[in-house]
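Predict the structure of Galactokinase.
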Amino acid sequence: MTSDTAQHRSAAGPRGFAAPGRVNLIGEHTDYNDGFVLPVALDMTTRIEAEPRADRTVTVRSRMNGAEFSFNLDESDPAPRRDWSDYVRGVVVMLQRAGHRLTGASLVVDSNVPTGSGLSSSAALEVSVGYSLVRLAGEEIALPELAKLCQKAENEFVGMRCGIMDQFISCCGVAGHALLIDCRSLSTRTVAIPQGTRIVICNSMVHHELASGEYNLRRQDCERGVELLKPAMGEITALRDVSPEALEAHRDLLPETTYRRCRHVVSENARVLAAVDALASDDPWRFGQLMVESHASMKDDYEITCPEIDQLVEIALAQRGVYGSRMTGGGFGGCTVSLVADEAAEDFERALVEGYHAATGITPPIYDCVAGPGVREITPRG
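Done. Here is the predicted structure for Galactokinase.
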């Protein structure tokens, strides 16, 4: 293992960079179908302390667990190692293939984004690493381009066929707002969170490993649905091109499971747009109802929830002052997100912790969400 040495450190000291995790308010598994999503960048971040090196080596050390690794920027045909280093090395590979001239660097990583919880710790790592290496090399990069290259790293190097949402919101988040993202055009619209409400995240402590297969299988189901619908609908390229009415008109072309997968995505796209209208109209009750409908669709049609997550949503919806609650993230564990009236939030959080512990024996962490900014340079830790 290569460690930092004095000759490789910068006399100016390290520079600091931070990229946020995210919570998706509504719009699950729509991003890789060219659809619509409504995430919020969190104030929980992955932070990098970065110093240039005189050689072509990148060293990475984790403050969370002390793990470290290193690699050479000129390594020919790098192959995945099937560990967390792939998220870093994959970003480097894609940046260099895109023509960015990176320099050797010593990186120290720290994060308070929970891993395996559906809050996009992987995207926060990818974006923070990519941004720090580009800026350390004295280059500039458009944030949408960085998001696309980080997504490509996860798709092609890590092997997780995620959509663009996680990396995009980590790059382009806007403090105090959710961001409606059109995942086809990458156009955006900022949407204010209603006054007097709070976004509360609850971690089920059930951890998933999306790259192991189920997430990719859902994507394959959607792609199969598009291919089977083409003879009747013409040259559609994604489920974004299918309306709820068209899907119902041609459901006989689809096997039952494929139909239900498609129905979730098509209906979820419609829910996202309705949710934006609800927020713009300052109607948290309508927004909350759409969250509930989204969860039911993920549970019954997409089949990506689990008993613990369903239990959390059931407990949440029984509390006073709760507008809506749903699973957030890729699924198979992770977190729920709830929209709660400010004055009810403290009682809500206590009831959620007590109820979930009584049902499962697990004490779940609760996170009050503050909508933060996207990736940025920060003052490094002293």
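The chain has two domains: 6-192+372-378, 197-369.
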